[in-house]
Amino acid sequence: MGKAKKLKLQRAAIKPNARKTNANAKPKPADPSPKAKQNSHSIPPTIPFDPEDRILLIGEATSYDSHSLLLSKYPQAGAHVRDLEAEGQKVLYGVDATRLGKAGGGGKEVRSGPWDRIVFNFPHVGGLTKDVNRQVRHNQELLVGFFRSALPLLAPGGSIVITVFEGEPYELWNVRDLARHVGLKVGRSFRFQSAGYPGYQHARTLGNIEGGGGWKGENRAARTYVFENVGEDVQQRVGKKRKRMESDDEEEED
To answer: Residue 145: which residues within 8 A CB-CB, separation 6 or more?
Structure first.
């Protein structure tokens, strides 16, 4: 957590945060067309934060797992954590993304914001069930809980950044609608390009796979959404309307 200029996302390969970690599902990667591959290399990556931003990285500078469980599942995480801490960043363990700022959600360390950007790349609860509809609902519950807990922690003008894979079953999550019901709107969205974070590797919820596995998340099409607080727009509109009314009153008095 901290300033973007100090954060090294490419080294924060701690697994994406989730409330459950017993995933064993193996989604099939999308096979992007040659045209899509060419376009992904020709378009410069979009980085959704600035060097001066205060950033809370869920699942990358936080972990749902305890420190010992994290290292047992991802032995390489120890080096990543040391690199982050060497840069003056804080790494938190046992952080539930649906309880941010509360007990079990990072407590006062997370409440110490406000945060300009709260980033949650590739949220997933893991393989709780083989039933697609139930699995979708579990992930929707995770996202709604995350949105609700993250929204009060934003600084004025701050945003929540979510990255999810494209295609099914991820499109069934209806991320935009979930955010809208919580009081957020999409400010912009763009294709996630791992090339923007040299050394980035997608980590799966269940831990490392012996031999590395054939599924590479960093090669699968994904999209990043930047959500903004709808309430701020309402406040701005009310403020402008109040100023116009006060101006009209002053003109009538003259």
So the answer is: 19, 97, 98, 99
Residue 38 makes CB contacts below 8 A (sequence gap 6+) with none
Amino acid letter, residue 11: R
Q: Tell me how far apart the terminal alpha carbons of the chain are, to the nearest angstrom.
A: 54
Whether residue 64 contacts residue 17, with contact meaning beta carbons closer than 8 Å, is answered with yes
Cα 223 from Cα 214, distance rounded (Å): 22
ω into residue 169 within 30 of 0, thus cis? Answer: yes
Question: What is the distance between the alpha carbons of residues 180 and 230, in angstroms, rounded to a whole number?
Answer: 8
Give, to the nearest 10 degrees, the angle between helix 132-150 and helix 175-182: 40
pLDDT digits (tens, 9 = 90+) for 2-24: 443 333 333 333 333 334 333 33
Name which residue leads in pLDDT, 173 or 14: 173
**Neighbour tally for 82: CB within 10 Å:** 12
Whose structure tokens read 């999409």? Answer: 186
- pLDDT tens, residue by residue, 19-70: 433 333 344 444 544 444 444 456 789 999 998 999 999 998 999 999 999 9
Residue 23's identity, in one-letter code, is A
pTM, rounded to two decimals: 0.75
**182, amino acid identity:** V
> What is the reported pLDDT for 17?
39
- Residue written as token pair 């960093």: 218
Calculate the average pLDDT of the chain.
80
Question: DSSP string of 104-125?
Answer: TTTHHHHHT--EEEEEEES---
Interatomic CA distance for residues 88 and 69, integer angstroms? 23
